[in-house]
Amino acid sequence: MKSIEVAKYLCKYYNMEDKVRFILADATTTLPLKENLFDKIVAADFIEHITDKQKENLVKEMIRVSNEVGTIVIFTPNEIREFISFLY
Q1: Residue 34, strand partner residues
Q2: Measured between alpha carbons, how far is 74 from 14 in angstroms, rounded to an integer?
Q3: 33-47 pLDDT, tens digit each
Q4: Residue 74 forms beta bridges with which residues?
Q5: Which of 31, 63, 68, 87 is found 20 to 30 A from 53 (Cα to Cα)?
Q6: Does residue 4 contact residue 10 with C-beta atoms inside 8 Å?
Q7: pTM, 2 dp
């Protein structure tokens, strides 16, 4: 996957290779991860491309793998965010 190649490159560039691990999985099914694992989960720019059933499964999985104090962020492109990105 091209996105994972880019992410690995960025990790290497910023000396983060030993702190990051990539897992290729379908987040709309059961993730190959333990429960209560993450402090932060981000779903960026894809939820608008999946079915309502997949969205339901995605949120359930995000909750399952998030820990008690975890933060879940889901965002999708919108006009204001795109404008802010343009400014940067």
Answers
A1: none
A2: 25
A3: 999 999 999 998 889
A4: 43
A5: 68
A6: no
A7: 0.75
Write the pLDDT tens digit of every residue in 56-80: 999 999 999 999 999 999 988 877 7
Neighbour tally for 50: CB within 10 Å: 15
- Residue among 76, 72, 9 at smallest CA distance from 36: 72
Per the structure block, which two tokens stand in for 20?
């990051």
Dump strand ranges (E) for 1-88. 38-44, 66-75
No. of H helices and E strands in the chain?
A: 3, 2
Q: Find where tokens 């379908």 sit.
A: 26
75, 54, 71, 52: which is closest to 63 by C-alpha? 71
Return d(Cα 35, Cα 66) in angstroms, integer.
7
Place of tokens 């059933």: 53
